Amino acid sequence: MDLGIRGRKALLFGSSRGMGRACALALAREGVELTLVARTAATLAQAAAEIRAETGIAVATVVGDLTRADGRAAALAACPKPDILLNNADGPLPGDFRDWSRDDWIAALDAMMLGPIEMIRLTVDGMIERRFGRILNIVSRSVKIPQHELALSNGARSGLVGFTSGLARQTVRHNVTINNLLPGLFATDAQRRHINGMLEPGGRTFEQIWQEREAGVPAQRFGRAEEFGAYAAFLCSAHAGYITAQNLLIDGGSYPATY
């Protein structure tokens, strides 16, 4: 299927690895020009080089942080008129809410709620004027299946979901859609980081937790990043203008409810 977005411009935060990188590659394969934004220069340069080599698509890079005004400004300077915006930021390590300070909560809100909202604010009116826009937020299944050790994520990401639910119903008439992707368990660096954060002295090993989590998925496997990227690319396509304000689970059947 031709997604009808060749020549469009995408501004992609958190796109040097994992699911963000998979989204970037899937869009590049459809002929979308990319601006990749991430905090680590080495992984960013490697991702850009590999995507260019495979697709021949123009790929710009910005070393920047979604949570910082200077990072957002640098991203927009490199891609001032994006047709596609991907908001993606690492979630915090697992923990106990009793151990977190106000600063911990503010940092979580900056990464998973306020930073994405600010990027939407800075780009959505231009998309409306140009009559095309696709905004995706990589969120988490934790907004539908809260996990006690991920309370920072449960709270901050739910705030973003609530905000976009209202805005997305105002922009869709202008062919600007806003959707949230809710990944379950994927075999990515983020999953490895999460499990490392769960390790306790004398407790289960990394391998034991990895196998237990994989076995708990109805699909009996972790998701693959390229599956996530393909889904995201379709939601950014010319064919997806009637899909907005949705919280879309990609979890191998793990969500245990009908609705």
Would you write up a description of this structure?
The protein has 259 residues and is α/β, with parallel strands linked by helices. 46% of the residues lie in helices and 15% in strands. The protein has a seven-stranded parallel beta sheet, sandwiched between helices. α1 links the parallel β1 and β2. The longest helix has 29 residues. The radius of gyration is 18 Å and the shape is globular. The mean pLDDT is 95.
Summarize the structure.
The protein is α/β, with parallel strands linked by helices and 259 residues long. 46% of the residues lie in helices and 15% in strands.
Keywords:
single chain; 259 residues; alpha/beta; seven-stranded parallel beta sheet; 8 helices; 15% strand; globular
The topology string of helices and strands comes to: EHEHEHEHEHEHHHE
- The end-to-end distance, rounded to whole angstroms, is 30 Å
Largest beta-sheet details: 7 strands, parallel
Mean pLDDT: 95
Please list the strands of the largest sheet in the order they lie side by side: 3-2-1-4-5-6-7
Separate helix tally: 8
Query: Which stretches are poorly predicted, pLDDT < 50 over at least 5 residues?
Result: none
Shape: globular
Report helical residue fraction.
40-55%
Radius of gyration: 18 Å
